[in-house]
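Protein 1 of 2
SEQ + STRUCT:
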Amino acid sequence: MTATQPAPLVRLDAVGRDFRTAAGGSLRALDGVDLAVRRGEFVCMVGASGSGKSTLLSLIAGLAAPGRGTVLLDGAPVTGPGPDRGLVLQSGAVYPWRTVQRNVAFGLELLPISRAERVRRVAWYLAETGLTGLRHALPKQLSGGQLQRVAIARALACEPQVLLLDEPFGALDVQTKEDMQLFVRRVWADTGTTVVMVTHDVEEAVFLGQRVVVLASDPGRVAADLAVELPPDRAGVPRDLAVKRLPEFLALRAEVEDQVRAYHQRHAAAQPGG
């Protein structure tokens, strides 16, 4: 007898989303998207422009509502934003007038928890993200990578069920980006938080994710859902940057790149004058 699989934490069923154009017409951004994310999983979404990656993330965050289909979190419909989902954008969007410590505490000030619990969480997440020594600094005194650490710490301090990352390292230089990739993998392993991340960087998606979901364009839809199985994961040890040189990694990266490129070329050919 087959054991019953636990219900996914995040589930999208036949999700569609349209936008009104400036000319008064309609643009179909997403159509028939089915996606399930298990509790504790790290899923990366990649795709060419027009594939609806950020739109999908905004639907899970509750910042927008689907025109068709359902978006569920832990079996309940998503009807708006909530502390059970933490969202980090490319800009980080920290508050410039608040210190690092007070930025991390911001979401906790809105929750019905004790002051002692708020202090405990802020201290723990500052330590987890390597920011304890910068707790009294203002954002203008921080580097780009440090600002993203603050944004991630602030999102995690509310202990959401899902952490949503929208191109969080897109504006960073290569060295800082790789440092942040190692950082977010470690934080994910330490906290067990479910992570759904959007990125245009295929190498980053394969390095970070347990699954890579490839979205096709116009309208956005799931074209492929690929498991990432690399020797460090099977051995139960942390993944490091050396994995990017393994044949298994290079083969999977090439497969994802081919998928993204194929759907981008189909999209370009379908455009007027293409």
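Protein 2 of 2
SEQ + STRUCT:
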Amino acid sequence: MSFHLLAGRADPGNPWFSGQYVRDNWSTIVAALTEHVTLTVQAVLIAALLAVPLAVVAYWFRSLTGPILALTGVLYTIPSLALLAFVAPYVGATNPASVLIALVLYALLLVVRNSLAGLSQVPAATIEAADGMGYGRFGRLLRIELPLALPGIMTGLRLATVSTVALVTIGSLIGFGGLGDLIFSGFRNNFYKAQILTGTLLSVALALLLDLLLAGAGRLLTPWARRVAP
């Protein structure tokens, strides 16, 4: 392994940038990128559908705040390889659902914590005004609290998305790692620099692009959050 690594570095025929590699492997690169995007979007959406209700429960029932944050925190601290190894035998070692489940579990903490922070920052005066207007708990949540908590929720989604883009690469261990498959294949292929760099740069670019898209969506959905007082 070390011999190939050193040989790859010293080989002038093994450049970091290679347009020929991209042209010859375009379909493979696109397929890896598509898989990476699909896994990321699915994981973040599922995590949001689970995490926001959990944040609401923690917000309504303060005694459950600690246990919910503790549970999601413990899941987040499990090493990715160990979590994948634990999930895979139950779902299938060659099933992409194994990677998806692991990604969802990792994203939960980021969305729960930031959603709860957003809900907790809703002004008490606003809640009292909503109560005075006759809103019930669910009506107030849907019409007042969740919209005002949206900046915090969007922050959680942005953090979860960037984190998930990076974690998808671990799925290459079972053949479902998106751009990670390119990176790991490059290491196995005598440290093929162009393949490694292509997968790495596309992963970074994807994370930045998705983060910018979510930031833009957040600004469109929360115009009041960017108003500057005169």
